[in-house]
């Protein structure tokens, strides 16, 4: 009986270590995008937010793509904040921009799924499809700035999930506050 208990504790410790190793706080990436904070150099939250917003404001070759991306980031930010209602509103903005565009049907389908429910977990699953549909929209669409393709290896029970962001700082839309910094930047679009 002791051996079974000891083995169970051992395997639980290994599983916990693997989880932490695969989804650590991404300190190396955050240090690049955040100024040093110590007792001699403190930034207020407001100035940090302003710096992040202005640091990577991408501009697009056409206005419609810019508005679609803005609405997409609204969905992402709402999911980061665990706000299902705001995710629905931003998904509606995507649909308003692509009303009759049959080439963006996959984008519309994902946005419709997000709008159809207030269940944030269902929204997060649809957001994964939305992120996939955004890739061809974003490739080659930037006039200036950068967009970061980010990845969480723990999303969807270890299958992983991607999203796009205007900042290097990881803000995970698949887990929100539970694992806010889980993820890494996989690619930079410019």
UniProtKB/TrEMBL annotation:
The ranges of region (Disordered) come to 25-50
Please list the residue ranges that the record marks as compositionally biased, kind Basic and acidic residues: 38-50
| Leader sequence segment | 1-21
Protein name per its UniProtKB record? DUF3347 domain-containing protein
Q: Which PROSITE patterns match?
A: PROKAR_LIPOPROTEIN
Taking every annotated instance into account, which residue ranges of this chain make up the domain DUF3347? 68-140
Q: Which UniProt keywords apply?
A: Signal
């Amino acid at each position: 009986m002791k051996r079974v208990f000891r083995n169970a504790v051992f395997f639980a410790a290994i599983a916990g270590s693997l989880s932490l190793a695969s989804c650590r706080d991404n300190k190396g990436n955050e240090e690049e995008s955040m100024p040093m904070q110590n007792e001699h150099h403190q930034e207020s939250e407001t100035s940090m937010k302003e710096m992040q917003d202005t640091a990577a404001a991408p501009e697009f070759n056409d206005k419609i793509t810019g508005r679609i991306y803005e609405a997409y980031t609204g969905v992402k930010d709402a999911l980061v904040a665990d706000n299902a209602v705001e995710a629905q509103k931003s998904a509606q903005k995507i649909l308003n921009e692509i009303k009759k565009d049959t080439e963006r049907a996959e984008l519309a389908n994902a946005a419709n799924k997000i709008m159809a429910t207030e269940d944030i977990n269902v929204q997060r699953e649809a957001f994964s499809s939305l992120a996939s549909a955004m890739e061809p929209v974003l490739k080659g669409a930037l006039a200036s700035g950068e967009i970061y393709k980010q990845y969480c290896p723990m999303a969807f029970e270890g299958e992983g999930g991607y999203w796009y962001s205007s900042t290097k700082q990881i803000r995970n839309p698949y887990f929100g506050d539970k694992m806010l910094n889980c993820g890494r930047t996989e690619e930079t679009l410019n």
